[in-house]
Amino acid sequence: MIELHKLSHEREPFRLNPDLVERVDASPDCHVTLTTGTRIAVCESVDEVIARIKAWRVEVLSEALRKSR
What we know:
Layout: E1 2-5, E2 13-16, E3 21-26, E4 30-34, E5 39-42, H1 46-68
Antiparallel strand pairs: 1-2, 3-4, 4-5
């Protein structure tokens, strides 16, 4: 799971399963569209969301490799 913040007054944090992300758009705010069709406006930039997804995937794959040895 990656932590993001909903675009609102409270900047509400939430955790998202990156496997559900279909796309990330900047229009002009950053929106994450899920495979379910749900669209979420977030405070992070497109680059920040992508970096968190990449870091999460590296962590998952590293853990899988570590356990397979």
